[in-house]
Every structure is written in C-alpha cells, then in structure tokens.
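queue> pop job 88
queue> type: inverse folding (structure -> sequence)
queue> payload:
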C-alpha cells in the first residue's frame, strides 16, 4: 500500500481488511476491524473462509462472481465473541492479487437515510415507499412512507411475506409470488410487478413494486432484496379508459398499429396540402438482442420502461405507436430530417439519471437503433415511408449503428 492509502485504510471508521485473492489470507486489518473483536475478547480470523464461516467457496470464486457482475456484495454471519452478526461485505479489487473488503452491520436499516440515498434516483414519486426483505429469515422492514401508503401506523406494516401477501388482492397474489420466486431462483438483479393491495380502510389501490437484489451469499444466492412500491391507481384508471377505446397498446399505453395508421394518414394529408416537412422514425427496441433471453415478464418490463422513456422525450404533436413486439413507429409532423436527428439523440444518448432508471428495469439505450425516412423523398404514402424507415433501421441494426437514414 502507498502511504496515503495505508493511512486512510487504518483510519477508516468502517471495519475493513485486505486479503489475498488466491489464498484468502487476510493480510491487513484496520483498527475498526481489530477493535470489533478486541472489545469482546475474541480473536480475529486470519482467512476469508474463517471470516465468513464458509470453507466451500473460496475468495477467488467470490471475486470471479463480482467481476462477472453476478453479485455486488456478500451477506455473511460474523461470529464476534458470543454474538452472530448479520453483515454485508463489499469487495473492491486493489490489483490482480489483492482485494479490499469493508463491512457494514445491517441487522437494522436506517430507512430515513436509505430513502435519501440508496434509491434516490428511483424514489421520485411522493407515494413511493421503501422496504427491505431478508429472504432467509423472511423478515420485512418498511419505511414510514410504506405506512403512509397503506394508511396505518409503522408498527402495523407487514413484517413478513405472509403479512404482505394477506393484503394483496386474491386475483393478483399468485402472479406476484411467481415473479419474486423466479427472481430469487434465477438470481436476477431486478423485477417489477403491478398488483392491488388493501389499505387500512379496506380500500384496494393499484401499486407498482420494483425490487432489486441488495446482497447475496458467497455463492451468489439472493439474501436481501430492497425496493419500493408506488401508488399507480390514477394511471391504472386512465389505462382502463384507454383500453376501452381499443386504440392503445396494453403493454406500453402507446397507440396500437391500427389507431396509428389513422393518425399517420391524417398528418400526411396535412403535410401534402401545406407543403410542410414530415419525418418517420422506425425504432428497434432490441437491436442488440439483449431482450431475447429474458423471462417474458422481465422482457415486457424492459419494453414498457423504454417505450415510456421515449414517449416522455417526444413533443406534444408527435405520434408514437407500438407496431410490433419490440418495434415502435414515430411520426414527426412539421419536422425536417436535421431536426429529427437532434430529437433522436435525446433518447439515444440519455443523461446518467435516465440511464439508471432504464437499467433498473433491465433496459438500455445501447439496445436501441433508429431508421429515419422523410416525405416525400422516401415515400409518397404511409406504407412507402414505413418501408423506407424499416430498411434504414435494418441497416443500422446489421451495421451496429444507432441511427441510419433511408437512401
């Protein structure tokens, strides 16, 4: 270690250690870690296997899982004197042979801090509530915002999955249970589910639940999940109204193919009569094939999230429709090719906070590509424009590009 690093390491308030990746030997421990054991007259373990009470999985195997992105942190029981502490261990590579580990004791989670930091990028709605679930012990901890959402005191919020499921509408419970079960069995990072939950006044509200694997065992098993629920009752009421109109796609809430044709034809007629520019964009949501191996619910969540992200980027006069499972068609009235390219870049190169929202639902702007076609150069009618835009997006997809213009 360099002198500045060595000093910082020793003075860290968080218990920390440096270990040899291959042998698992703990080569250095800071004062906080030493004191953790000295204060109870216990001897600090000398190896990773002794430290986490697991002689089956080596430190090198754990580091390999971290490099692969399979796990982010390890949950392990630490024997400190006569106490067994449930702790989170985060590992960071120092070089090819050494790893830095730092420990947080997480038997109790401070939700007042978590709501402002851990999921700040996601907790933007006032109705969102944060929770943590310890899978092995089936213990759920809820924030005050969950209590507000359910209309009950904090002590009356669900404390385990039995309590939670007892509040869910009987028609929605099985699907949620299966979604979470698959999340754990397949060791996935995220999941999303929508269901009705009963408030303290016996009223059911629609909520969207998003869960994220927070910590895993040394072998990659999901140990803790953290996430939030938000009230989407108003959104569901609107979706129901739109479905009754038979013009909107159920998954994304966008226009369906039939309704889009009507709107597109009208706009093309205006462009022809008024001699104004008009551009069509074909958007492939899975240009790199990242959705192909996902479970259906997970794939639908990614498509829904990406479609809604794009919808928020377009202008009021623009018309966006879902015309195939992973394809969108966007009509841009009174828009030149140059202006259309600028608009496309707003969702092909999203900001950091927007990327995080997409990644939370296993979506990515890197999986998008767009083909552009203009009226009348690339087509005199909607069908011809659509064919030109489709040829452009196919060219972009096969060439590894994000944007292509019809020739």
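queue> result:
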């Amino acid at each position: 270690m360099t002198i500045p690093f060595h000093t910082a390491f020793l003075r860290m308030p968080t218990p920390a250690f440096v270990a040899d990746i291959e042998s698992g030997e703990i080569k250095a421990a800071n004062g906080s870690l030493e004191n953790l054991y000295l204060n109870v007259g216990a001897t600090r373990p000398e190896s990773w296997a002794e430290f986490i009470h697991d002689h089956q999985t080596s430190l090198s195997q754990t580091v390999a899982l971290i490099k692969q992105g399979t796990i982010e942190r390890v949950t392990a029981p630490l024997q400190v004197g006569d106490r067994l502490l449930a702790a989170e261990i985060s590992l960071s590579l120092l070089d090819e042979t050494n790893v830095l580990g730092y420990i947080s004791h997480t038997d109790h989670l401070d939700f007042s801090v978590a709501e402002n930091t851990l999921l700040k990028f996601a907790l933007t709605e006032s109705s969102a509530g944060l929770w943590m679930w310890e899978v092995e012990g089936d213990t759920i901890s809820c924030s005050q915002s969950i209590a507000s959402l359910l209309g009950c005191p904090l002590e009356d919020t669900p404390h385990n999955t039995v309590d939670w499921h007892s509040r869910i509408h009987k028609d929605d419970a099985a699907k949620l249970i299966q979604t979470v079960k698959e999340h754990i069995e397949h060791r996935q990072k995220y999941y999303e589910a929508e269901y009705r939950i009963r408030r303290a006044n016996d009223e059911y509200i629609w909520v969207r639940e998003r869960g994220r694997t927070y910590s895993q065992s040394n072998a990659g098993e999901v140990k803790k999940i953290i996430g939030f629920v938000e009230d989407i009752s108003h959104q569901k009421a609107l979706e129901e109204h739109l479905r009754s109109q038979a013009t909107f796609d159920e998954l994304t809430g966008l226009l369906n193919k039939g309704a889009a044709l009507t709107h597109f034809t009208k706009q093309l007629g205006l462009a022809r009569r008024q001699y104004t520019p008009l551009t069509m964009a074909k958007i492939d949501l899975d240009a790199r094939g990242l959705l192909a191996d996902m479970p259906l619910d997970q794939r639908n969540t990614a498509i829904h999230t990406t479609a809604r992200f794009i919808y928020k980027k377009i202008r009021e006069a623009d018309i966006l429709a879902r015309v195939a499972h992973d394809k969108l068609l966007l009509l841009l009235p009174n828009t030149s090719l140059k202006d259309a390219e600028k608009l496309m870049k707003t969702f092909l190169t999203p900001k950091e906070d927007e990327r995080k929202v997409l990644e939370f639902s296993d979506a990515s702007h890197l999986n998008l590509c767009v083909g552009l076609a203009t009226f009348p150069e690339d087509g005199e009618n909607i069908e011809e424009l659509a064919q030109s835009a489709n040829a452009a997006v196919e060219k972009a997809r096969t060439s590894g590009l994000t944007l292509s213009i019809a020739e």
